[in-house]
Design brief:
alpha/beta; four-stranded parallel sheet; 11 helices; 9 strands; 15% strand
Length: 310
């Protein structure tokens, strides 16, 4: 297997090969052992400066990237559009060029517009990591999700994974579909018909609006939250009704003749898409996902910096 990624940026899972994903996983295995030892820091990116540029609010992803960068000994610059010149009308390209003029080597960016990191990659001389672009992709989340499945079940190939919830507004869903399929898993999506985009039929995934059917079929259920902040019209009558028909609860799990593994990318809307007794149960590996997120993001940053240094 190649010891270098085939791409200079992580813009989306779609642009990665299976070998790229396996290399990221093998590197993350090494970094996971690092972050579980008493001294959790390595000097791998000591001469690299990374700018975290977030044009949308984020807690978990931003903290995870910042922790990954500091564990690798990188110099870190944090930028938030809420208190910047973007409010004064500065363009995306001007903003990033101003940051790059300060000799930044890598950019981790979240933006509300699909394709924003792809646009930047054509104009600036820095490695770019997409930390979420609108409702398009969230590649590091899909990598940590599939890494967590591999860790729990031994392999992703041949597994049946159901993605439940708000597929239409989720960047996690699309990245997960691409990653799971590249690694040989079968994918089913489940949610209200109003929240399942029409194009999914062309991606080779199974589609259902019956949560029992999805749960009986799958080995793994990845539960997505309802993204009310992206919904400008009503896609279902109420959160209570959504929870009744599509929420994951202990009763549904008790009906199954097998144990299933439960993931959630966060933040959790407890009592809506998942009940607390399920989220906190032995079935769920939600906290493992959080820990694995740091190791996977360390791996991505390290491998992209290796391309730069070569």
């Amino acid at each position: 297997m190649s010891q270098a990624l085939s791409v200079p940026h992580l813009l989306g899972i779609k642009s990665l090969t299976e070998s790229d994903i396996q290399l990221i996983f093998e590197t993350a295995d090494e970094f996971k052992s690092v972050i579980n030892r008493p001294i959790k820091k390595v000097p791998s990116l000591r001469d690299i400066t990374i700018a975290n540029i977030f044009f949308e609010n984020s807690t978990r992803t931003k903290l995870s990237f910042e922790l990954a960068e500091k564990r690798l000994s990188a110099d870190v610059v944090n930028f938030s559009s809420g208190n910047s010149s973007v409010k004064k009308g500065e363009t995306l390209l001007d903003t990033v060029n101003n940051i790059l003029s300060m000799k930044v080597d890598m950019v981790v960016m979240r933006h509300s517009s699909p394709g924003a990191p792809h646009f930047l990659s054509r104009y600036i001389d820095a490695n770019i990591v997409n930390a979420g672009d609108g409702t398009h992709e969230h590649p590091t989340q899909a990598l940590l999700d599939t890494f967590s499945i591999r860790e729990k079940l031994g392999d992703v190939s041949g597994k049946k994974v159901a993605i439940l919830g708000d597929i239409l507004h989720s960047r996690v869903a699309l990245s997960n579909i691409f990653a799971l399929q590249k690694l040989g898993a079968e994918v089913m999506v489940c949610g209200p018909n109003t929240l399942i985009p029409k194009y999914l039929g062309n991606l080779g995934v199974k589609i259902t609006s019956n949560i029992r059917e999805a749960l009986h079929w799958c080995d793994v259920a990845n539960v997505l939250r309802i993204q009310l902040e992206r919904q400008h019209i009503k896609f279902f009558p109420s959160l209570r009704e959504y929870s009744m028909h599509f929420g994951l609860n202990k009763q549904l799990l008790a009906e199954l003749d097998k144990p299933i593994t439960i993931l959630h990318p966060g933040p959790i809307n407890r009592g809506v898409e998942i009940t607390s007794d399920v989220a906190d149960s032995d079935h769920a590996i939600i906290l493992d996902q959080v820990e694995n997120g740091v190791a996977v993001r360390m791996a991505v940053l390290y491998l992209l910096a290796s391309i730069r240094q070569n």
